[in-house]
Amino acid sequence: MVSQQETAAGSALPVTRRSVIRRKLADLGVVRTQDLVDELGVSVETVRRDMAALERDGALERVHGGAVAAGQRLSVEPSFHDRTSAQGTGKARIGQAAARLVSDESTLFLDVGTTALCVAAAIPASFRGLVATNSLPVAIELARCPHATVLVAGGRLRSDDLATAGQYAIGLLEDLRVDLAFLGSGGVHPTSGLTDFHLDEIATRRAMMRNSARTFVLADATKFARIAPYHVAGWDSFTALITDEEPPAVLRTAVQRGGATVIVAQ
Questions:
Q1: Which in 153, 174, 263, 265 has the greatest CB count within 10 A?
Q2: Where in the chain is the domain with CATH 1.10.10.10?
């Protein structure tokens, strides 16, 4: 917390206010404009001017409702190969935690990405339900379940992930009503919510969300406080975040304020 002396000084001295903002970013990775207004006792315009100055200095990047530490925004997603080799144990735990939510005859959407593939791998071969996916690797993994119904969305194929998107993919998803949806993530952030790297896959994810009773975000700890270019939805749109490590307090609070829960895979 900022002391009364600092707060009084911060109202008059930009250098003191900006030092406070830097410290909060170092501790939390993210700051909210309104929190700074309340803590420093200054106007929204003053906080925004301070953030603009710090952004010019390379200390932060402004986002809707606040700012994040410099370097947390990413414009290009790492390759599927690189993501497959990263956080392998944590992603496997997430996959197992998600699979435990799936009953023998559940219907579900399973999104693209390496963590979604771990969910598919954790579903037992005896599974008799229905899975609709826009990921060819996920569909291939589920082919080992002889009694399952696996539906593959059509559309334009992205070569790296072997993911499909576009109106044909959305058409299949809109025709279904399922129990559970498991969504991949480019980044999970307190104020920006779920974000991703591919614009045409945003509509696919939103179709899954509209047509499922419960929706889960899959995100390992490397996604915490990270912002990809395209916004999918805020935390009020999801049932839970499934992750492999306890998230920062500011992220957990944002998820819970949105009405979702946090599931830390053990």
A1: 153
A2: 4-69
- What is the spatial distance between Cα 40 and Cα 20, in angstroms, rounded to a whole number? 9
Lowest mean pLDDT segment, chosen from 6-10, 40-44, 84-88:
6-10
* pLDDT the model gives residue 240: 98
pLDDT at 38 over 70: yes
Maximum CA extent, the chain = 70
Q: What whole-number distance in Å separates Cα of residue 13 and Cα of residue 11? A: 6
CA distance 36 to 31: 7
Grade residue 262 by pLDDT with cuts at 50, 70 and 90. Answer: very high
Residue (of 134, 103, 143, 100) closest to 116 by Cα position: 134
**Mean pLDDT (whole number) for 83-102:** 84
For residues 260 and 137, give the distance between their C-alpha atoms in angstroms, rounded to a whole number: 29
Angle between helices 167-174 and 199-210 (to 10 degrees): 10
CATH 1.10.260.40 fits domain 80-264: no
Looking at this protein, which amino acid is placed at residue 103? S
